[in-house]
Structure formats: C-alpha cells, structure tokens
Amino acid sequence: MKRTLLILTLLLSGISFSQDAIILSQENANEKGITPLWPKCDRSRQTPTQCFDQKLRNHIIQNFEYPEIAMNEGLSGTVTVEFIINKKGKVEVLEVTGAHRYLQREAIRIIRAIPKMKPGKWGEKPIAVAYTVPITFRKPQ
C-alpha cells in the first residue's frame, strides 16, 4: 500500500510540474523570437526584441528617482533585478541583489511600474520570459 501511494504521488507531482512552469531566459527567448510585446511595439519599425529593449531602457530612465535617504547617506551602487513577464503579461520580481536596501527598493519600484503587455508566445501558448536588469545608482554631484 505504501509503495502504491509513493508511485501515485510521484506520478501526480510529475504531471503538475509539466510544461505550465516553463520560463525562458531572455537569451533563449530572443533566439526563438519569443518576446513579450510592450504596448505600442506592434506599430514599431523595430523588431519586437529591439522595441522591448528600447522601451525598457526608456522606462527605467523616465521613472528613475534617487531615494532622498540614500542621497543623504551617500549611498551608490548597482542593483540587479531579476524578473519575469508572466503568462498574463504582468511583471513579477524574482530576486534583487546588490547595493543598499534603499536602492534595492527603488529598483523594485521602477521594475514593478512596467506596464502590462502581451506575453511572449510559444506557438499559440503564452509563456513567461525572465529578464535580468542592472540599475546603477550614482550620487548626483
């Protein structure tokens, strides 16, 4: 009986972790032509990947605010944010590393402000795509 339960548990866990949990890295997604579609990139002359990269860069620049407390304490450094654009086109922050926590909070705020977009698709199926973005904080002179 115990052996049967063990086999049944292993079979069910294998089914539950099947293809629904696939997350492609940015490099793999770019190679396969699977990129989330940033709003208005469908009307761009650029490729979806180029448009996504440009819009992300512009988003970070436009939403960047040096935290006042970090400025007062003379904090600077690079924060690396790992996030995914999930199967629904929404941002999910996975991990944040580097620099001080005040700078990390600002980097998270910037990334979470990314607008909802059309998710990347593998065939007709939406798929999550992972990104890693470094954001450098240099204290203004």
UniProtKB/TrEMBL annotation:
It is a single-pass membrane protein. Residues 1-21 form the signal peptide. It is found in: Cell inner membrane. GO terms for biological process: protein transport; transmembrane transport. One of its GO terms (molecular function) is energy transducer activity. Transmembrane segments: none annotated. One of its GO terms (cellular component) is plasma membrane protein complex. Pfam families: TonB_C. Its main location: membrane. PROSITE patterns: TONB_CTD. Keywords: Cell inner membrane, Cell membrane, Membrane, Protein transport, Signal, Transmembrane, Transmembrane helix, Transport. Residues 51-141 form the TonB C-terminal domain. Belongs to the TonB family. This is TonB C-terminal domain-containing protein. It comes from Aquimarina atlantica.
